[in-house]
Amino acid sequence: MAKKDRPAKVLVLLGSPRKHGNSALLAEAIAKGAKACGAEVETVFIQDRKIAACTSCYHCQKKGGKGCSIKDDMQGLYKKLIEAQAWVIASPVYWFSMSAQTKLWMDRLFALPAYAKHPFAGKRIAVAMSYGGADPFDSGCINALRTFQDAFSYTESTLVGMVYGSAMEAGEIKANKSLMKAAEELGRKLVAA
Question: What is the dihedral of CA 21, 27, 29, 31, to 10 degrees?
């Protein structure tokens, strides 16, 4: 996936307000698997970033437009997103979909093509989600997963895999050993050539 003389770069985006919540733990396991295959991993806690909502000004889409008109922490993230060969997106389910933090970040990806030609093509993506119910359908997890599937299919990215499981209290997901093992395996698969 990366050039032979350089390890793959993986950018982990934590979309929960809890740094050590269940979706973050799944992302950590994915990162562990990627690191085991020699990848460089960087983690971004979205909650700590100032990311405004897209204003639909279309500045990023206009001829001669030089990126997003909103000057906030997404400016630094655009570069990291382009440089990474793989992304890990982690989010809890909030009200039948992804967290607001994750959705703000996703909406602002609209401007990414203003920073590089075909910036999504070839990106390898893994998704990690946690939800409080017993079922991924009635909890809304499937709604969020479908959003990721549709968005990254449209952008010609490769959705390598998704891991998701039920857990309410922070850290509870660790008890699901098979899920944690699957997350680590997804990390290996994410950077496999």
Answer: -140
> How far is it, in rounded angstroms, from Cα 2 to Cα 112?
21
Rounded Cα distance, 137 and 160, in Å: 21
Q: What is the C-alpha separation between 44 and 91, in angstroms, rounded? A: 12
Q: For residue 22, give the amino acid letter.
A: N
Q: What is the mean pLDDT of residues 13-34?
A: 97
27-39 pLDDT, tens digit per residue, is 999 999 999 999 9
Read off the DSSP letter of residue 52: P
How many CB atoms within 10 Å of residue 74? 23
Query: Which ranges of 5-60 would DSSP assign to H, the alpha helix?
Result: 22-36
Domains and CATH numbers, the chain: 29-191 (3.40.50.360)
CA distance 23 to 101: 13
Both tokens assigned to 47: 């909650």
What residues contact 30, with CB distance under 8 A and at least 6 apart? 12, 88, 126, 128, 163, 183, 184, 186, 187, 190
pTM above 0.90, yes or no: yes
